[in-house]
Amino acid sequence: PQVDISADNSKVTAKLPTGDSVEVLLYGATVISWKSSGQENLWLSQKAVLDGSKAVRGGIPIVFPVFGPPPQNHATSSLPQHGFARSTRWEYLGKSTSESGALSRGGDDSVKLDFGLSQSQLSPESRKAWPYDFSLVYSVTLGKDGLQTMLNVRNEGRESFEFQMLLHSYFAVKVAYRGRWAAADGVEQNISRVSISGLAGTSYIDKVLDATEHSSSSPTLSITGETDRVYKSLKQDTTSILQDDKPHLDVVRDNLTDTVVWNPWKEKAKAMGDFAPDEGYKNMVCVEVGSVDGWQKLEGGDTFEGGQLVKSHI
Ligand code: BG6
Known about the structure:
Blueprint: E1 4-7, E2 11-15, E3 21-25, E4 30-36, E5 39-40, E6 62-63, E7 91-98, E8 110-118, H1 124-129, E9 134-143, E10 146-155, E11 161-167, E12 170-172, H2 181-185, E13 194-197, E14 203-206, E15 212-214, E16 221-222, E17 227-232, E18 238-243, E19 246-254, E20 258-263, H3 265-271, E21 284-298, E22 303-312
Antiparallel strand pairs: 1-2, 2-3, 3-4, 4-5, 6-11, 7-8, 8-9, 9-10, 10-22, 11-21, 12-21, 13-16, 13-18, 14-15, 14-17, 17-20, 18-19, 19-22, 20-21
The structure holds 6-O-phosphono-beta-D-glucopyranose (BG6).
């Protein structure tokens, strides 16, 4: 068996001989599915708009060049929330595969899919709002270690620019932990059994509470209500999603130190037109790696690369 890759006008799908698979929409280069050991690891809203008219609610939207509402008096001020990368069609640049020999029974196979976005592909409005000559290459690699997603940013112009970036991953927490949850409890209480570890940093901003900076943070966070926190300068590379205190997914930062943890909870989920089902907030949590504290400055000709490796424990 070989790595199976199919690409059409709207998405690219790759499947390893193990059955693990990944699906990437060209719109936003949004990873909309990642399955390992037969389980879907990403949450995708049932009302997610996939036709390219709106950023995808779920999967892994790419936030660039600004995180959240753009600040006033900054080069990004006229851009929409979270920038343009998630709502622009990217180009599929191609694949590279590494296939293992028969002896390893396909267990070492991996596939890397590359996607590109540069200034010339932007809408006239986006180009006007952020008039810099840049190119992005987003590499999505599926292998035996998990899913790796890396964003490479290059300043193709002469003038320097400032940017923020973030991989807005929606992780599914619906999965029955080794088959035990679903039978015992159904899906109702899943989110209350989820916690996030590996969040010891210098400080965090609590956007729900008061949008101000909190100096010391507990390394573990339980999701028991609306959560929207920006953790800055994290000290360790790995933030993990735990279910019943057992590791479910490890999110390993690569050249990034910030992480946002977001769950809209009941009212906010209901208020979002593209969030479904209403109760879906019980089955998802966003753990979003990025560089969002201040700005990354890129001189002409320079590049920056950052991303994540996500490992599933199931
Ligand atoms: C998170 C932010 O990263 O994204 C939240 O911290 C925001 O404040 C959320 O609500 C979703 O944003 P959007 O634009 O996709 O609705």
